[in-house]
Amino acid sequence: MTENEPSNALEIKGLVKLYKGKRSVEAKRALDGIDLVVPRGSLFGLLGPNGAGKSTLINILAGLTLKTAGSVRVCGADLDREERRVKSSIGVVPQENNIDTFFTPRELLEFQAGLYGMPPKERITNYLLEMLSLMDMADAPTRRLSGGMRRRLMVAKAMAHRPPILILDEPTAGVDIEQRRALWAQIKQLQKTGTTILLTTHHLEEAQELCESLAILHQGHIAANDTKDNLLNQLDNKSLTITVDRDLRDVPPNLRPHGWTLEGSRRLKLPAAKASLSLGQMMLSVQVNGLNIIDIVTYETNLEDVFMKFTQSAAPDAPSNRQAYPTLF
Ligand SMILES: Nc1ncnc2c1ncn2[C@@H]1O[C@H](COP(=O)(O)OP(=O)(O)OP(=O)(O)O)[C@@H](O)[C@H]1O
Ligand SMILES: [Mg+2]
């Protein structure tokens, strides 16, 4: 990054999208004042349940949907005033594949680079085919590609004009586990070579594996926005569960002061936040009751817990909720 380059890849302020209703379709405020900053070089995840507004946000960045209000800057360029600069700075993989199956992958990538005015010398077609494991099918008609290969070709297509920012809407939807892992490695590789990546995903395991920072979108609002580690630390529901070899009617008296609870008749559970002893001491304090330990399970907070916490409740200021049931009580 040179001194004059902005440090943020994306700066979004007060972004609103109102889809106007048409006959049978109700009007929808899909984005209700989104503020979001994505630092240059980061691998940023946008999570949220179905209909939260993720694709709407991405489609606005891609120039596929017009925003209603707010401002968007991409690598310092304003979406309203410098549309061409914005377009050349981002490559977008939309949620739905839109590959023209008439072309071969190689032709498609060459054509795409040409569309952006990239001289043949600067094109990276072979590099992309190699990196996304598509070389074997480079000259085959695209209709012969499997779903996973098409998804990877979509990523290559988005990168054909060498944009500094790659935006992926559900990159691994419909991709099997093995290919998903391969695509994760390729996404990480792209980040290492300096590309900023913003992705949406429904696979929380994918977000946990890839993303350093995350925003959770819920009913058109940002419900949480922090580093992955901070989000995981916010919810301290780690626990230790020890299964013993005899039925118990209650927590043994020596364990009660430490906060153990009994689940069923044989499982003793201790929330990690309450654990003041080492694991060895805890095991001993169970065993002194003449109990044999037959299983130990530790539970770590994961992104699913965080996701549930921020998306189960109603969005705080969502207009549709402000006046919920005003006259019932
Ligand atoms: N073209 C459109 N016209 C009217 N409403 C729309 C349109 N596109 C999206 N919506 C509505 O806007 C809201 C947000 O949709 P969006 O596709 O952005 O959600 P999403 O977070 O991407 O969901 P998913 O996880 O299912 O992909 C939804 O209520 C959706 O029905
Ligand atoms: Mg979507």
The total of beta strands comes to 14
Please give the CATH architecture of the largest domain: 3-Layer(aba) Sandwich
CATH superfamily annotation of the largest domain: P-loop containing nucleotide triphosphate hydrolases
Distance between the termini: 59 Å
Overall pLDDT, averaged? Answer: 88
Strand order of the largest sheet: 6-7-8-3-9-10
Strand content: 25-35%
Question: Measured on Cα atoms, how large is the radius of gyration?
Answer: 25 Å
Global structural class: alpha/beta
> Which percent range fits the helix content?
25-40%
User: Low-confidence parts, pLDDT < 50 over ≥5 residues?
Assistant: 316-329
Order of helices and strands: EEEHEEHEHHHEHEHEEHEEEHEHH
CATH topology of the largest domain, by name, is Rossmann fold
Question: Quick summary of this structure?
Answer:
With 329 residues, the chain is of the alpha/beta class.
Tell me about this structure.
By secondary structure, the protein is of the alpha/beta class. The protein folds into two domains: 8-233, Rossmann fold; 236-299, Alpha-Beta Plaits (2-Layer Sandwich). The protein contains eleven helices and 14 strands. A six-stranded mixed β-sheet has the order 6-7-8-3-9-10, sandwiched between helices. A four-stranded antiparallel β-sheet has the order 2-1-4-5, with helices on one face. It has a four-stranded antiparallel β-sheet with strand order 12-13-11-14, covered by helices on one side. Helix 3 (105-115) packs parallel to helix 5 (147-159). The protein starts with 7 loop residues before the first strand and ends in a 7-residue tail after the last helix. The protein binds adenosine-5'-triphosphate (ATP) and magnesium ion. Magnesium ion is lined by residues 54-55, 95, 169.
